[in-house]
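Let us practice reading a record.
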Amino acid sequence: MYKDLSVYIHIPFCVKKCNYCDFVSAPPKPGQLKAYADALCEEIKLSAAYADNFNIKTVFIGGGTPSLYDSSVMVYILDTLKSTFENRRRGSYIPEELTVECNPGTLDKIKLSDYKRAGINRLSIGLQSADDKELKLLGRIHTYEDWEKSMKLARMCGFDNINTDIISGLFGQTVGSFEDTLKKALIYSPEHISVYSLIVEEGTPFYEKYNPESLSGEELDKWEEEDRLIYEMTNKVLSEYGYERYEISNYAKKGCESRHNMVYWRRGDYLGFGMSAASFIDGVRFANTDSFGEYTAAPYGSVKEKETLTLDEEMSESAFLALRTSYGISCGKFYDDFGKDIHDIYKDAIEKWTGNGMLIEKDGRIFCSEKGFNICNMIMADFIL
């Protein structure tokens, strides 16, 4: 029997790197777009042996800005993936969910129509903010109007499963300004909304301006309090509009949860293609190089990290990733996976957090209460062995 597999394909190019971004991405230099696509397809072809044991269920093409490529290149990449798995197995290749990340300003009707014909059935169109001043601060290339145009085009081309990303916690942002962004996004009723609290990463332009050392304690306290209030307001508003929070930062209409992301949170098998792409197969984690030169020279021989997790690491990861989701930890699955009763491993943590109402144990599951979700990172820390 084939095991389920998710595939992530990394496109490291963008029109302009955003001020908060620490991903492996940059504007392409002459000749890099073609060289990278060719290397990517070579890596995919050389992975054919995985087709003997795995059946691809979801594909996610992220970046960077995948929609920077001409649609013909996207079709070339997807056709390579399809033919590699079909030829090896002599069976069908029909992912349940095939997502492409897109930036407003890089989409048009022809590109979206080509996506649809290629089998892409889900889009992730980044908004980040409906305030053009905030978008400029973030270093985005688009305006809110550009995002509106992209949403209208996507609907016109038949896409009925769209995510939009929004960033909260910008310095100087208020509950009112963020609520305005949220409600402007809701005008177009995306099926899925991801709301990420800004993390100021070292090495980014934002870190130079907003790192903790450059702000006073009073400024930091105010910033954190405003972000907490925004988080509470977001839950309230999206619930009123029919969205369910199924993970710390992700909300969906019924049946529109990201199947691909759920694989990560449930520790399923996934295979990454491209620079810096990570994989997790049968308990072994490995990742490709983040060097363009190394990757294009040897796309299937550029793994820079490989790690086999210990039992304690696997149990910890299983527990804290599950606690990110509204479903939480399945006590039965934990026993099936590790041959241990979760109460024997995490007795103190479970008693501590169920005792104060932050965790709930019911019907064979352990999951965060509504209040617990608000401090989920603190709870998860107690599940690391």
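A brief commentary: The mean pLDDT is 92.
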